[in-house]
Amino acid sequence: MPWKNQGGGPWGSGPKGPWGNGPQSVGPRPPDLEDLLRRGQDRLQQLLPGGHFSGMGIALVLIGALAIWGLSGFFRVQSEELGVVLRFGKHVRTVQPGLNYHLPYPIETVLLPKALRVSTISIGMTLIDDPARRGRTMRDVPEESLMLTGDENIVDVDFTVLWRIKPDGVGNYLFNIQNPEGTVKAVAESAMREVVGRANIQPILTGARTTTEAGVQDLMQKTLDSYGSGILVQQVQMQKVDPPAQVIDAFRDVQAARADLERLQNEAQTYANRVVPDARGRGAQILQVAEGYQQQAIAEAKGQSSRFLKVYEEYKKAPDVTRQRIYLETMERVLGGSEKLVYDGGGNGQSIVPYLPLSELTPRRPQAPATTGQPQQGGTR
């Protein structure tokens, strides 16, 4: 006879065992598994045709289970995601956002990484919660931002990296690297330290930011590609580039002195650009005047020599006549501008009053203008 009909078994009524009372239940009792199975069988028999497990009923159950299993392969890929379909754990294809289908589990499974989203990683700074401002504030991380330059100076560099997953590298992203964000951050910091270590501090602080960003991006991409990470570095942005806080005031003084030096050099260059062309122009003018005078003197000398030769030729033909003509021309040139009085009153000149002021009797000529090069000729006859 079953023990449940004996009032607690061979040891008496109640929940007792051979050593006395059994363990007492505390709290709600767990459901009985056999009771649950029995209820499930009853419910299933009610749904099946005929109320019992016939061949047709089993077939319908199997068909329904297969239909549900087949429909479980539908899945949706969101706008920022790509679907990576695995067949028995092997990557077979990548699907785009939208409604897609894969063979039901366990034949195929799908992973949904956010491959179309651009992620941002900050190096040298971090965001922390600020209860006073009811938000988040930026905090510097010196162990990441302090770097040594090529001229043995220390510079504080904060920068961010924008990256995403390559459309054709989702499989590499999922299976080749274990911690993608940590890998990108480590590679970014290493690449920035290498680029900064090859340059001097002055270009980094002034006009070489674009060159530095491009160099870091290229070096990061080469390193990540060598890892087979499937990551695309879109942009590197340098947020802050300053000397360390301990020496920033002195460095600013040096920068101000260098700015003054450049300003003074520019002013001197401007003055030189204004004065030097003026001096060169005046020098060229003097040279041109001297060349003109040279050409004039040579031409006059050649003209006088040609005139002398022509006069000499005429003189050889008629010496007396030429001599007389030359004398007259010379006297005309010498006496043409002087006061003169011609008297033809006899050979002895006794009819002339000895003390007659002849210079006051003759009319005075107006003085020749200063601009004329030859004196006016004339006289009283």
UniProtKB/TrEMBL annotation:
Residues 367-381 have a biased composition (Low complexity). Signal peptide: none annotated. It comes from the Bacteria. PANTHER family: MODULATOR OF FTSH PROTEASE HFLK (PTHR43327:SF2), STOMATIN-LIKE PROTEIN 2, MITOCHONDRIAL (PTHR43327). HflC and HflK could encode or regulate a protease. Keywords: Coiled coil, Hydrolase, Membrane, Protease, Transmembrane, Transmembrane helix. Residues 1-32, 360-381 are annotated as: Disordered. Residues 247-274 form a coiled coil. This is Protein HflK. It is found in: Membrane. GO terms for biological process: proteolysis.
